[in-house]
Amino acid sequence: MKVAVITGASSGLGEEYVRQVIKQLPEIEEIWLIARRLERLESIAARFAEHRFRCLSLDLTDPKSFAVYQQELETAKPEVQLLINNAGFGKLGNVAETDYPEQTGMIDLNCRALTAVTTITIPYMPKGSGILNVSSIASYAPTPRMAVYGATKSFVSSFSKALREELKPLGITVLTVCPGPMATDFLEVADIVGRSRTFETLPYCHPQKVAAVSLARLCRKKVWYTNRLFYKFYRVLGKVLPHSFIMKFSKT
Predict the structure, then answer these.
(1) Is 149 annotated as catalytic?
(2) pLDDT value, residue 193
(3) What pTM was computed for the model?
(4) Collapsing DSSP states into helix, strand and coil, what is residue 95?
């Protein structure tokens, strides 16, 4: 059975990836949706009733969820053609003024969970399959007021590039996606709305386009995807200018 696995699938960019998998990958026989909110996953599955889904209500900040996911794989023994690591969250605020569970929670979900899900899934991925890891433009340079979030996304980008090289002999492709701000639940969870002049002035990306183009690029075995020329330019600046200078502008 050919399967696509999508974490953070209950809304926003994750939901758009569901649509694009259905549109672009007709060979996928079942889509596994992973998120905390089971009712949201079931609602998405009901909207595409002609397709097969497996809804896994898992809190990926809880290490016990990894054992549950691993058991699902061992029982079903699927051929995972696609893994989309989309689960993640950010929180606006200075580190010294934020409760530590929020800071460490970002590390647990954005880094630990992504690493665990990837490691557990790889043994079930055949030659020609692909992994799509959702990072962020925040990985291009340190981001004051979202210091931990930016650091976790730097981990995702670095991990993805090294993983791509490791998996070449197995014929598994890895794509890193670094979108800019999008009008999704992320902004509300991060407590950004009305509290960041930077976010109010930055050009926004469209989740549908990010999902569509990034999945198409993964299928073409590309390495990287950043939406909008503005953010592609920012990526170049992050490479050539001192971060001490860039942080004067990257502060959220």
Answers:
(1) yes
(2) 62
(3) 0.94
(4) helix
